[in-house]
Design a protein that fits this description.
There is one protein chain. By secondary structure, the chain is of the alpha+beta class. α5 packs antiparallel against α6 (209-215). It starts with 21 loop residues before the first helix and ends with a strand. The strands form 6 sheets. The protein has a 6-stranded antiparallel β-sheet with strand order 16-15-14-13-10-21, with no helix packed on it. Strands 2, 3, 4, 7 and 9 form a 5-stranded mixed β-sheet that branches. 25% of the residues lie in helices and 25% in strands.
Length: 410
């Protein structure tokens, strides 16, 4: 029905669905009825801040494939106090739960960088704006999902893998009440969260769906027909989930045993394609990306290479006790085929000491690791990463245990 007699709301309409459809289908029905160029989805338990809309619209105007989210501030469930949130981005766990994480700004970040659009691997899902045409071109929502849950990761993977971008817009802020429990009852006999998760895994995660099944067991045997979503992915010529991890979320921790099997399987597949067709550019590109990942443990000291990401010693590297899996992200390093040693999106650089800096492919960020002698050589200095007590330094390569490093899984 229309709110035709309420002043400034005279152009607003409320769609009254005949039966309970759940958040996912209700949003699609609303987008179908909308007539504006941009659709903005907001949870009901929100409070918009000053001038929140224009920054979102300005970014979409630049490119309709930009899907944009405001910074989500916190409204207390106890007393409704409004609390500003730090600038963070979205991630996910292998059980397909959403989580927040710090944005990897480099040490050279300026105030201007702090207000630029920030790429985010995933969105929380409750608050975002999207060009209406693009929303439907890229597949709106998966209408085979139930009620609520998992749709935020599905649309995040799909947007990135199918040619769009997902960004946090720092100049737009909206307050949100974060509930302490899942507020919705599932439909009779359906575990909506698990069913939705299976649909995400089966359509978008390729071999990485095994990690989801390792974390969560789907009690039901029926998750619905996904052929339409599989066809959509093919029609949109979307990238692989490996591409998503390599290019959008290289910081994501992958269990070492799975990573080795997955990368070798992918490598052999692409090598065969290149053997059959040396000009197969897609297969050549697929061979790019990370070469290894794990903790760097010094053989002599038994300590692990760590980096400070906040506080007085921000961006400096140091040696510390190797941590267990629950906190392993604090010591997780990624080697790339560009000879970079990456931590939390930043590169280990020797221009002004051993510090993290924005990756720029400079000679001071070039490293070679030799599995045979376990040395980590800085190519521009032709010196090896060494440990002296608790301190790190570069020194002439002497094949000593102080220069030997093991790549270990936490």
């Amino acid at each position: 029905f229309a709110l035709a007699s309420r002043g400034s709301f005279n152009s607003s309409k409320v769609l009254d669905l005949e039966s309970r459809q759940g958040l996912i289908r209700a949003r699609v029905k609303g987008a179908e009825a909308a007539r504006g160029e941009v659709v903005v989805f907001l949870d009901s338990h929100c409070e918009a801040n000053v001038d929140w809309l224009r920054p979102l619209l300005a970014r979409i105007k630049q490119d309709k494939r930009h899907v944009v989210c405001p910074v989500i501030d916190i409204i207390s469930t106890e007393n409704l106090d409004y609390q500003p949130s730090p600038l963070v981005r979205g991630g996910f766990t292998w059980s397909l739960n959403f989580n927040w994480e710090s944005i990897p700004f480099g040490p050279d970040a300026t105030d201007l960088d702090m207000i630029k659009p920030a790429k985010s691997p995933t969105m929380a899902g409750g608050l975002f704006a999207i060009h209406r045409d693009y929303f439907f071109q890229v597949g709106s929502y998966d209408m085979g999902m139930e009620v609520w849950g998992g749709e935020n990761l599905e649309i995040s993977f799909r947007v990135w893998m199918c040619g769009g971008t997902l960004e946090i817009i720092p100049c737009s802020r909206i307050g949100h009440i974060f509930r302490q429990r899942r507020p919705y009852d599932d439909a009779a006999g359906i575990d909506a969260m698990s069913k939705n998760g299976v649909r995400v895994a089966e359509v978008w995660m390729d071999d990485y769906k095994q990690l989801y099944y390792k974390e969560r067991t789907f009690g039901g045997s029926e998750f619905g027909d996904i052929s339409g979503r599989v066809l959509l992915r093919k029609q949109l010529k979307c990238q692989s989930f490996q591409w998503f991890l390599d290019n959008i979320y290289p910081e994501k921790t992958i269990p070492d045993d799975f990573k080795k099997r997955s990368l070798e399987k992918s490598r052999q597949k692409n090598l065969k394609q290149i053997h059959d067709n040396p000009n197969d550019q897609e297969a050549l590109r697929a061979l790019e990306g990370r070469l290894g990942q794990g903790q760097l443990k010094n053989v002599k000291s038994g300590l692990c290479l760590s980096a400070a990401t906040s506080g007085k010693f921000h961006f400096k590297t140091y040696m510390s006790d190797c941590v267990r899996r629950a906190r392993a992200d604090a010591q997780m390093w990624v080697f790339t085929n560009k000879n970079e040693l990456v931590f939390n999106g930043l590169c280990l650089d020797v221009a002004k000491g051993l510090k993290l800096r924005k990756c720029d492919l400079s000679p001071e960020q070039s490293w070679l690791y030799s599995p045979e002698n376990q040395e980590l050589r800085q190519t521009s200095r032709d010196e090896c990463l060494s440990v002296s007590g608790d301190y790190l330094r570069l020194s002439r390569c002497i094949h000593d245990k102080v220069q030997k490093w093991e790549i270990t899984e936490p």
